Structures are given as C-alpha cells and as structure tokens.
Fold these 3 entries.
Entry 1:
Amino acid sequence: MDFRQDTDKRNQAAYAAMVKQASPNSPILLNCLKAFLVGGIICCIGQFIGQLARGPLEMDAKLAGSFTSVVMVFIGATLTGVGIYDRIGTWAGAGSAVPITGFANSMVSPAIEFNREGLILGTGAKIFTIAGPVITCGVTASLVAGIIELIRMRLGG
Amino acid sequence: MLMDYLITFGVGGLICVVGQILIDKTSMTPARILVVFVTAGVVLSTLGLYEPLVEFAGAGATIPLTGFGHTLAQGAIEGAREHGLLGALFGGLNAAAAGISAAVIFGYLNAVIFSARTKP
C-alpha cells in the first residue's frame, strides 16, 4: 500500500481525483479477492512462526506471540526496505496493509523518502507518520479498556 | 493441522477484505484504516468478543492489526487487575512492547540503510 499520500495533505484531494480518473470502475470484487488471498497467506506465515515458537523453540504462549510479532515486523520492514512490499501492496491493497507486516511497512515507507532531511528529524520523525496515530489511538483506547476492567472489579464482576 | 491453516487463512483473509471494502467504498486512506483497525481491536477485545476469535483462528486473528489492538486491551486489563489504575495506564504498551520495539528498531534501520528509491 502506498502511504505517500498521507505525507502531503495538499496533494491528497488531487491525488484522490487522479486515482478516480485512472481507475474509473474499481473492480471491488477483484480487489477483495486479492486482499483475501494475500491477507490469508500472511496470516498463515504468522501461524507457522507461532507454531515454530511454541514447538521446537519451546516458548510459552505469551512469549510465542511476542516472537511472532517481532519476526513478522522484521519481515515487513525488510521487504519494504528492499522495495518488494510496496510492490505487493499495489496488487494486494488492504491484504498487505492490514496485517502487522503492513504496520512495519507504514513506518519504513514514509521514512525512507526523508533520509535527505537527516537521520534524526527526517527519518526519525517520518517513521511515525502513520505509526504515531495508530499507537496514540491504540494506547489511549487500551487505558479505557483498563479503566472499564477496574470499574467491573469494583462492582464485583 | 491443515485445518488450522485453512481457518487462519479464511479468518485473516476476511479481516483484510473488511479493510479493502472500507478503502474502496469510503474515501478512507490506508493510514486511517490502520487506526480504525487497532481501535476496533481494542473495543472488541474489551467487550470480550475478540478472545474467542483468537482461540478459533489463531494467527488469523492476531496478525491483522485488530490483533494488535487485542494485545493492547488485554495488557491494560491484566495490568488493571494486578496494579490498579497504574497498571491500566502502562499495561497496554507493556504487552505490545515487543511488536512496537521491533517496528521502531527494524523500521528505522531499514529506512536508514535503504536510500530513497523510485516507487513502483
């Protein structure tokens, strides 16, 4: 998936119009099939890594989950670095954007374009263009989840 | 064993199809989709609806970003049980620490190593 449109707000409307013109009758069914295939395959790779962690590597369920995330993120980030993941993304759409490998892609993809602005304020900042909002919303929502649990406990649930 | 993979494939694929429909039918950018998926994962997990899906589909439910939200929510809930309000505050990030650390570190390294290239 191409995340560049999010880095330049002014061009967003123009970009959307251009996309609309370039793909007049977006074949939604075909797009969904592609997303289903690629998303399913990525999840199966995750399943395989998880089984590897719980089996031969003898990790408990929690550690195996962390291990799987780390490996999947590594795969996503590296494939983005070498330029393969964005190519998958143009074909697969949400199929490669929604899995956690897509989260890694969303960090590398904008950051890689801003190397010339410096490694700290260029790359270091742009890495959070999309991951920033995701982590902010996720963590804030998780606090709400925790508070709801506290209330539930207080009520003797 | 094969059945496990079929279920993982089907559920994981369907979650991605939901994202694809949102992209095609609304003007939501992929970035917004990611935010919505993580938040939806937290909400579903808090309501107790996501854990059964994880038990049923394994990585098919944990690998999509909704699973990331599930990890955050369960971490905060566990933190709340063990340490009260303080635990509710840090439990989420605590549980998701491995994934986020890996994403920051591997993401940064990759972005630094590979210079800007012309995208397809």
Entry 2:
Amino acid sequence: MSRNSIRDTFFEECEELLEALVEGLSSMEQDPDDMNVVNAVFRAVHSIKGGAGAFALDRLVSFAHTFETVMDKVRSQDLKVTEELMHLFHRSGDQLADLVEAARDEREPNAESEAAILKELDSYLGEADKDDSFSFDAVTLDFDAAPAEVDAPEDSSEEDAALRRFRIHFKPSAALYANGHEPLLLFDALAELGELRAVADLSELPEFDAFDPNGAVMSWTLQLETSEPETVLHEIFEFVESLCELDIREEDGAAPPALSDDPPDLPGLAPLAPRETGSPSAAAEAAEARSDARGGEARGPRPTLRVDLERVDRLINTVGELIINQAMISQRIEELELPAVAHLTNELEAYKLLARDIQEGVMAIRAQPVKPLFQRMSRIVREAAEATGKKARLVTVGDSTEVDKTVIERLADPLTHMVRNAVDHGLEKSDARAAAGKEAIGTIRLSASHRSGSVFIEIADDGAGLNRARILEKAIEKGLVLPEAELSESEIDNLLFLPGFSTASEVSNLSGRGVGMDVVKNAVAALGGRVSITSTPGSGTTFTIVLPLTLAVMDGFVISVADQTMVIPIASIIETIRPGQRDLHAVGTKGMVILVRGAYVPVVDVAFNLGLAPGRKEAGEGVLLLVSTESQGLTALRVEAIHDQRQVVIKSLESNYVAIPGVSAATILGDGKIALILDPEEVVKLQPAAPYFPAITPPKLELHHA
Amino acid sequence: MLDANEGPTEAQFEFITFSAGNQSFCLEIMQIREIRRWTPVTKLPHTPDDVLGVMNLRGAVIPIFDLSARFGLGETPDNERNVVIVAAAGGTTIGLLVESVSEILSVAKSSIQETPDMKSDAARQAIVGVISVGESMVRVVNLDAVLDQEGGVAA
C-alpha cells in the first residue's frame, strides 16, 4: 500500500467521520444530555485529528484539537450546551470539513473563517484550559502520531494542576489479545501520565485442567494519579475500547482506598470450584456488560466493504446481459414450440426469477441512502440563514431512503440550490414571521420516500408561500409572458422554472448567482425525473422532485412506430387512449387535436417527428399516449400499437455513437434486437412549428409574437 | 507509419482486405474485433444515409455504417455475402457494412505507398495509403478519420 493510497483511505474515512459528526451534532441538538452522542462526536473529531497527525496536516490537527478540547468540556460536563454553543459546534464541523477538503486537494483553507471560529472556540476555554491546551497541543500531536509514546513534558507542564486520582477497571476480552494488543503497553502508557499502581485480578483464573490458553480471564484494577483529564486516559484505551470492559472512574482525592501492592492471593481451589460452575452466569453477565458497553460507547457502524465503483458497474452491466440473455433464451424456447414439457418451463421460470434477484441485488449495491446528501444540506441551511439574517432549521425525513449513487451525486447541486432558495426566498425574516404568528425559526423540511417505483424528494419551507402577483409581474417585465395572458395559479408557479427568471429584487450573494430554477429543472430532467411546485400563501412552498429508482433499468411500454419496435418510459405516460374517429379533429393541413375530457390536446405523430416513413396504419388508427411535456403541456403521442409492458435495461447510445434527437437511449429486447427508448419531451420538440391549442401557453412562443 | 524503414527485420503489417462500392480496401488487422454476418439493424431517426442503424454486439449498442455510402460510392446493395466488420478505435466500437471480405494481406511497411495527391474527396480523407497487390490497388482505411466524420455527419 503506497503512502498515497493510505492517504486516500484517510480521506475516505474522514468523510465518514464527518458524516458521523454532522449526524451526532444534529442529535445533540435534540438531546444535549445524551453522553453517548457527545462521545460519538468527540470520537469523530478525535479520529480525524489522529489521522491528520499521521499525515502532518498541522492546521487540521490544531483546529481539531481546539474543537475537541471544547467538546471535551461538554463531555466532562464543565460546559453547558447552549444554542449558541451548538451553533458554534455546527460551524466548527463545517470548518473541519473545509479543512479536510483543503488538505485533500492540497490547497489553502479559508484562514479567515478558521481564525474566527478558533477564536470563538477559545472563548469557551477558560484561561486555565487555554494555558494548558497550548502546552498540551504539541504533546497531543506527538501522542497521536505514536499513541504509545507520551512525552514527558506533559507532566512538567501540568504540575500546577491538581492531581486527580482515577481508578480504572480493565478487563480485556480474548479478542483484544487476538488483535495483537498488549495490556502491558497500555499500562506503560498510563504510567507515563503519572503514578500508576496496577493490581491483577486472578479470581477468574480457572483450574489448570480447564485453562484455555486462548481465553482471557485476567482483569486489572489500576490506580492512576495524574493531572491529565479523563479524556487522555480514554485516548490510551481508544483502540481497545471495544475489545475490553473498561471503567474509568475518578476517585475522591480525600479518601483514596489505596490498592495494596501485595501480590494477589490466588484464590483457593474451594472458592474457585463454585465460581467455575457458576461461570455461565458470570459469562452472561460479562456478555451483558459488554453488549451494554457496545450499545453505549462503541456503537460502531455495521461492517462495510469498500469497492471500486467501476467494478460494481461492470457487474451491473454483466447482469444486464444476463437478463437480456435470459429473455432471449425464453424467446428461443418459445419459438421451438416444444410440446408442453413442464420441466423446461419451470426451470426457465426459476432462471428468470434468479436473474431478477441477482439484478435487484446488484442494483442495491449502487443504491445509497440519501442521508449524507441531506446532511450536507443542514450546512447549506445554516450558511444561508446566516447570510440572510434569518433563523432556519432543517428537518429531514426518510433519510434512509436509498437512491442510485449517480442520482445522489447529481442531485447535490440542484438540491443545494433549492435549499438555498427556500431559505433566501421562501422563509420570511423573524419579525415578519412573528407578525404572522409563526415560530421565529423557519423550518426547511427535506423528505425522501419511495412511492410506486419512484423516489420522491420534497423540499418544503414554512414561509410565506409564493408571491404570485410579483412572479407574474416579473415575468411580464422580463417579457416572458404577455401582459394580457391569463395564467392559472399553477402556471404562474411554473414560471419560476423558466430560464432567466429570478424573483429576488435585489441580487443577493446567495441565490442570485445567475442560475435559476431552470437549471434545477434541467438537472432533474437529465436524471429522468421532474420537478413540481405547490405553494399555499402564508404557509409555505413545496418543491417535489420525482426521480426514477435507478438509472440502469426502466419500466417501459414496448410500442411500435413505423414498423419499428421502440420503448417509451411508463413514468411519462399519463394515460393511453384508443381514439375514435369522432374524437380527432384536423387543424390546418397536418395538425390534429383530440378532445380529452373537454380539452383539445395536440396529437403528435411519433413516426413523422422521427422522420420515419409512416407505418401501414391509417391516420386515426393506432394508440395515443397522453404525456405531459414542459414545452407544450399535454400532448398525445400517436404510435401504432402497444405490445407489452416490461422492465428494460438502459443502454447508452452515446458511448459508441452520438446522441439522437428524440431518443434518450436504447435497450435490447428479448430477440436480441435493439429498441430505441423515446424521450417524449424531445419527440414533441422535434415537431415542426404548427398551430396548436396548447394546454399551457408556451411563453417562449409569445416572446416571438411580442 | 509510412516512413520507409529498410532493414533485414522489416516490420510486417497484416491487413484484412474487403470490397466496398466495388473498390478494394483494407484495415489493419489489429483494429478489427470481429467479422459478422449481416443481420437487420435498428434504424435510427435523423441520421444520414450512411448510418444504417444500431446493432447489438453482446450487449453493447454499436452503430453500423455503410462504408460504401460513407465514401460516397453509393449504398451497398443487399447481398448474401455482405458482412459487418466490427472495428474499434479510440474507445468506440463501430460496425462497417462491406460487400465482402477477401483475404489477409501481409505486407512490409515499405510497400505501403502514400496516397497519391489528388483532389480531396470524402474517400480520400479516410485513406492513409495504398498497397499494390498484383494488378490491383488496395486502399488502407484510416479508421480514425471514418470515426471523426461520424459526429460531424450525424450532427
């Protein structure tokens, strides 16, 4: 393993630790007294510091150290968690993330904000702490680089501080030895902190015959007189904490029940025997204690495996082949028209199920919870609130919802933008909120859920709702709609998604970056999803992003267009219509509309738009697929027939060729042939301009008229 | 590649020769992945005539070009002997429909001549050199040039 790959691993771990940190901080907010959470946060910061020390990332180390020191005061309950402190912790967490990122990319971090936060953190450290912490600083550094060697200067610098007496009960488990830890080294490390007495407890030592050389029966009671805080003791045991029973208690300095130095009496055989027979219960007790310890202290993450994404993708591709291959075999066997031999059909069915199972399993590898993504947003909310002088908090719901990794990655930017917008434009200022009888702190609610094969992500604020009059005014002012246009409420809301639209009257340094909701919409559309918006005046706005569950498989209708088999995503289809001749009306020479529940909807012939020779079917025949498009609202796509509904594996056209207008990708059907997957939005756009009665007037067209 | 490199151990190049548009062409053997029988392809909308469509090559979607049409020599007529040469260059895999594949040609580097300087046309762009084989002349196809055209032609 090269140094670089170790470094990479460190940063990967940092990311996880930072996630744990953010998560911990948000649970701390809910319950500041939960010491387990405080410990978890502390550990995260500490581990980052430790790793950073090994790579000589001094700035990171010193920041983490200060952060950790303040955290430690909370841990030792010297410091009460206030809202203000919580806020500082959040910001420190953000800063830590920045520093990690800067260290990773080997660039200079933002010194200004770092200094500001350091100063604030320092202000929580009493004078004494501060003095201590400065001399302590370098020492801890060394300590992290080589945990076993604690430098001597420690004691000298701490001479003034009161000596404290700790009693440590240490009972290693067999795993501790198995992992190559040596209690003696730990004791040596402790001994360097101050005066140490150690007494071994051999009471559980079994009879010689019953002795298991691999077992762990000894425990120790240690007494340490030191001026170090308890944290330092925990640090020594850091790497074995989950492998032993550890109890560190500070003793009252007044009455120290000194441990005797006499060699421990080996328990006689008589007391031993009952102890041995009673060992199951003792073992159970120990196990219980251990599980308690695990439940509280070392609540580690479930074991995971780091795998190169490329390998997973290769596997996914191969499984895609398997599915296609399975479909082909089924088709071939059908073609053979074998006599109904039940065995073959059964086996084939089992094969099919297995293949699906494998596929689902493999796809699940790529699926990741949206939690990290949502957690990142808490920072955005914080920063946006700070920049706008508003008070806001983030509530997340369903952050264990799993979404394809690519979706998560590509959703980060649009989501950031929307969350910023929600704080900047959505929420009112505190005084306005108070005037409206709302809680002073605005709430941004991020939720994720799976519903009917799609992923729903909602960004809701409890602000004032959209100011429709102003949106309309702005749109008219910018020439996006005609002044006399009559727009429904939802049409006005949707104006937000038009390119070049921004309601902020003053360009704030937050949302007014020249990108608008249209960018968000395009990013979501590129993922095969859509964004919608609902708003209630006075009680807030909700943006809903609907995304396909995965990018590799899609549910589609197998249709035929101009004698070719194609696939159209089911998600885009609102309904299918088999039109009667009476429902269709010609408009102009080529145009055609259909009456759908009282509204005229333009009919688009897919074959014509794709430039394919029309099939054998006459006009009026075929099937209409009602889709909702952004450019001209409801549209009916005419295809020749719908054959089937099935899950198809998406294959890129672009990887070996260029993108084809109207076609989003391709798939391979059961007969091994390629079918094109249509993009309804693009198919409609291919339409040469013709007079229509669009359900929603396309404002862009009006611009041309104006 | 066309530098004359005389010497006793002169590099030998192997080419697969084929005919398209009644002309004889060849491709360096290393660029060829496989040769397949013609099977109907899925047509692509809004593409030029020389793009026949896409084909399933063990799960990959590869475009098939009519080489004759691409060189402006007219469409390849339907024939039993038509084959698709699957070739790879620069990370992309494409298929070229040709009339028929003839033989493997092994020639010394020195016997590849530079393309005579002619008025430029579609075919000449993609020919890096010519090899004289007996009475006839075989044109060495520059696959990269064929691929380079592809984006421009299709866009």
Entry 3:
Amino acid sequence: MSPFAEYAISALLLFGGAFTLIGAIGLARLPDFYTRLHGPTKATTVGVGAIMLSSVIYFSAMGEDIGISEILITVFLLMTAPVSANMLAKAAMHIGVKTMEGTEGKPWEQ
Amino acid sequence: MFDRLSFPQPWLSLILFATWQILSDGVSGGSVVLGLILAWVIPQITHGFWPERPAFVKTWRMPGYILRVLKDIIVASFSVAWLILSPRTPRPAFISYPLTLDHPLAISILASTISLTPGTVSADVSDDNQTLLIHALDAGSDQEVIDAIYNSYEKPLMEMFK
C-alpha cells in the first residue's frame, strides 16, 4: 500500500472517531431529550461517513474490490437516520417529554 | 387478477434488483432469483404507502442538490461539535416552518434534509401539510432558521418539482 493511502486512511479514521466521540459526549452532556437527539444522529453522520470512506480507500488500495457495498451502507444510513430521528421526536411529543428551561416555542398537540 | 403479478413501480424494482446484486457476493443464479423475488415483493407490499408520482421532476437537478446537502452536513457538523464541546448551554427552539412545497414526496425530501443537516431535526408535519415543526439545537431567531432553510433547500426543491 502506498504511504499516501496509509496517511489518508489514518487521517479519516481519526477524524471519524473524533466525531463519533463528540456525538457520544453530546448525548451525555446536553440537557434534555430533544437536544440529545442532535448529538448522536448528527455528529455521527460525518463520523460514520469518514470511517466508511477510509474503508473504501483501504480495500481499493489493497487491490480488492472497490468498496461499493461500503458506499451503499453509507447511503442506507443517510436514508434511515432522518426517519428514526423523526420517529423518536414524534414519540417524545406524543408522551409529552419535558423540554429544558429556555426552550423557545412548544411542540404541537394534534 | 394479473394486476397482482405486475411490477407497479418498475424503477423501484430495477433499483432493488441492482442493489441486491451489488450487496451479494458477485452475480450468480441464486442472487438473480432472490433479487427478482425481492424486486417483485417489496414494491407490492409498500405500494399503498407511496404518494402519487408528481407529474414532472427535474431529476438532473438532484446531484447538485445532494452535493450541496453533503457540504452543509460537513460544515454544520463542525458547528454542532463546537457547541457540544463549549461550556455554554445551547438555546434550543421549536420552530413552525411554513411550507410552500405541496407534493408529499417533496415535503419528505425537505424534512429528511432538515434532519440530516446537523443542528435541526424535523419533528412533525401538520395534518394539512402546511407547516413543519422543527427542533433547532441552537437558534439565534426563528426567522433566521426559516430563511436559511428556505433559501438553501426549499427553493431548489421547488424548482425541481415545478
């Protein structure tokens, strides 16, 4: 494997790992349910994306298949993440989870 | 009776079939058979959930839109990461976003985009498809968020679905 590919893979892995960690910190640190929804579903989008990209580069550089399945996994993730975030938010609104102090506006009642 | 044996959405079936071939280890007799079965069964089951196709979609505008969303995801990720690591408490807000789009497919693309870009989650659509409830993690003012979403996502989508 060329040194360039190795540097690219390491950089992407570190970058992705850092973002996933920040997402997890957000889950622990943010004050209420709705704000916590942002940490894991968002910061991890970039985290997983970067890790997938490094996997694609790794397998391409090893001379095996170009990793189409990794790209597909990322696409599936990007398609399903908003749906699960939406379902979580809807469920929280339905059972009336409390919002943190200083939240502007209110969830609807329908 | 033969209606039940047809492919109600040929494009969806084609995409499912191709995706299955890519996911399985090389194209073989088995993967083709299973791919055909999936390409037939899944559209049949999900048929009732699909909204009616819009009359005309400018699909060639889609790649540009996706690139813009990817760029926004990366840029906004940094600001959310910064917000999580900084000691100040965020100022979250529920924002009612007035929709100009009317096609259900367009609305769901907009809602997904809003959820994907860090800092905002779309929480609900009103029953009459007129308003979108958005939860923003750190909103300066409602109008700022609404304008940003309108200019960068809703306008291009309106172009696409006109």
